[in-house]
């Protein structure tokens, strides 16, 4: 039976979000319903609210999430009810050219849940980054669920769904351990230009922050010729979720990574709009929603 849960919805561009009743269908083939335990507040969700990602409103916000698998659909074997998981933006196909080359982060045929969560009136919701996790329960493709050690704090584990993975992954998987690397974690034309000119002539620029679609970059072509070297983006840290997320959880549990220090405050679903306001004015570090 479909379930009714509370979730944070952005109905219109630039308008305050609201906590509304969300209808979550039973999982179909290859899908899973996950009870969300924690979801980090990320600037990308504010971009969704402001129409900076797409105009496919209404959005079910939240994507940096950890929780427990509640039910799975037909044919799902990699996860089971009761598994503690971190959610990925997408499930990879494992069969395309990128996957077969060992670069699944560039998968050409990624997928999310086929079914849509809706509002009570039947309006279909667009889940942020294919997840939609500012909600008590969400529907995803089962391949978006990565099992990790349940000893990890849900708040900490949620940050590995985006924030920490994007930063650490960009350093380890995209750049190696070179000293001539500049990472643009903001995703604005101004910061990318600064990054371009800040590194040395043999250096690399790695774009981690998500830019809004209208943003443009103007650089002198002669500077591209003289300073080009490597210019690349890093999606979710170019990670292999099935191995990298559990690895970071293990490093956290072994006290190699002090991830607890990153969680500055936990808040309920009803305070998400306040969190966005703090983020807009630069008055917050890392808040985590606990549905």
From TrEMBL:
<keyword id="KW-0479">Metal-binding</keyword>
<protein>
    <submittedName>
        <fullName>Putative oxidoreductase</fullName>
    </submittedName>
</protein>
<dbReference type="InterPro" id="IPR036291">
    <property type="entry name" value="NAD(P)-bd_dom_sf"/>
</dbReference>
<dbReference type="GO" id="GO:0008270">
    <property type="term" value="F:zinc ion binding"/>
</dbReference>
<comment type="similarity">
    <text>Belongs to the zinc-containing alcohol dehydrogenase family.</text>
</comment>
<dbReference type="GO" id="GO:0046294">
    <property type="term" value="P:formaldehyde catabolic process"/>
</dbReference>
<feature type="domain" description="Alcohol dehydrogenase-like N-terminal">
    <location>
        <begin position="28"/>
        <end position="149"/>
    </location>
</feature>
<dbReference type="GO" id="GO:0051903">
    <property type="term" value="F:S-(hydroxymethyl)glutathione dehydrogenase [NAD(P)+] activity"/>
</dbReference>
<keyword id="KW-0520">NAD</keyword>
<dbReference type="GO" id="GO:0005829">
    <property type="term" value="C:cytosol"/>
</dbReference>
<dbReference type="InterPro" id="IPR002328">
    <property type="entry name" value="ADH_Zn_CS"/>
</dbReference>
<keyword id="KW-0862">Zinc</keyword>
<dbReference type="InterPro" id="IPR013154">
    <property type="entry name" value="ADH-like_N"/>
</dbReference>
<keyword id="KW-0560">Oxidoreductase</keyword>
<dbReference type="Pfam" id="PF08240">
    <property type="entry name" value="ADH_N"/>
</dbReference>
<dbReference type="InterPro" id="IPR011032">
    <property type="entry name" value="GroES-like_sf"/>
</dbReference>
